[in-house]
Amino acid sequence: MRGLLATSILFAFPIAYAAAQGTSVSTACCSSLHPRILAGIVTSEDGMPPARHQWVRAVILWRGDRPIQDGYSRDARVEARALDDAAERAGRIRLGAFYANRVHGADVSRDGTFLWVLGQQFTLPLRDSALVILVDHVDSASPTIDGTAHIAATLPAEYWGKVWESGDTTFLIRPRNTADHLRQALAISPQIQRFLDAR
Known about the structure:
Blueprint: E1 3-8, E2 15-20, E3 23-34, E4 37-46, E5 53-63, H1 77-89, E6 92-99, E7 103-109, E8 114-117, E9 120-123, E10 129-136, E11 144-152, H2 157-160, E12 162-166, E13 169-173, H3 178-186, H4 190-196
Parallel strand pairs: 1-13, 5-10
Antiparallel strand pairs: 2-3, 3-4, 4-5, 6-7, 7-8, 8-9, 10-11, 12-13
């Protein structure tokens, strides 16, 4: 059995994986980019180390009217589990969740083709760009999608960390400052930068 050695630990995101035609789809939530903004991300990868290629498919920015916490309380666990079960029955991957007035998250199709946010369906780019969805007022009774934008699908190599194999052991160096790298990539879009500059 292969071993896994993590040489650095930075964060603990709920992560889900699905494989489709040699390409895997993964989701991670939530990275704090601002006291009022959390980010969820959908990524893909193919190949094996050291030739593995990773890229961003989508980013969801959830903005509250007040500072929001990543994660959710014990009281919200039943609601979160019900949403996870519904996504599983629908053959989807659940991206989330965090709690701000209610449990928030999104669903991704297992082949990475579609993303559902607040009941709206979006088609994800394959490789050339990443879709960014701006969700506002998540801690209110009526969250809204403020807009969408696109950024480059690539992020700095430092964002992804490093994985390599030696004998029967896989070594993993988890990335540092992932929120900073993601924020820099998002800030290229003036529309997204305005959203991030929440006051």
